[in-house]
Amino acid sequence: MTTSQPESGQVFKSLLFTVIIPSLILAKLSTEERLGPTTAFFVALSFPLLFGLKDIISKRKANFFAIFGLLNVGITGGFGLLQMDGIWFAVKEAAFPLILGLGVIISQWTKSPLVHTLILNESIFDLPKIRGRLEQHNRVLEFKQLTARVTWLFASSFFLSAVLNFGLARYVLRSPTGTPEFNAELGQMTALSLPVISLPVIIFTLGVFWHLFSQLSKLTMLPKEELLINKTQNVG
Q1: What are the pLDDT digits (tens) for 73-107?
Q2: Phi then psi for 3, rounded to 5 degrees?
Q3: Paired residues of 228 in beta bridges
Q4: Which of 28, 89, 151, 155 is the most exposed place for a label (fewest CB within 10 A)?
């Protein structure tokens, strides 16, 4: 009953340290009278970097996406240090979700498909009941076809993110690298990434989840609510 508050607090902290604070630093402190463009750039990057490291250390687990996020920040810092043109920032912004999408597709041929880890997992679905019903109604093959389809759809959300990332970066980043104007544009791009990129991708992903949910209900002949773990049993 009380798990939503810590989760919502964690989401707010993530937004604060990875989006809000870096955007404000880049937009407001990049002038020569304040931190200067170079110092402001690296101070802004330090917040998502330290937040990612703290998350990995506190959980004592090398999360794939956390490592990817740290790598993203590191490459951004390297590009800034080398004062590379804005086009390379756009390529980098597109490359990371593109690689993640390909990783989702490739993982379906491994022992731990990402679609099972991220969506179809035991913290959400009552997998023993689902497996039993699939075997009972001889729908195991159809279930495998469903998970393959969902894998491609889920990967498509990352491909959509890649296209939106590249388009936003090319639209916003117009000034020379290493200038206060470029930093302000980078901060603007970071802030715009929530409504322009994250929101459409979240909507797309929810659609994929609903497709899995409804099709799984048809295959197992179970009501949707019976597919989920009954967490009320764990509330004391």
Answers
A1: 788 888 887 888 889 999 988 998 899 899 889 98
A2: -75, -25
A3: 125
A4: 28
Contact of 43 with 196, CB cutoff 8 Å? no
Measured distance CA(230)–CA(223) in Å, rounded: 13
* 127 neighbors 147 (Cβ within 8 angstroms): no
Euclidean distance between the first and final Cα of the chain, in Å? 9
Of 124, 160, 130, residue with least CA distance to 142: 130
pTM comes to 0.77
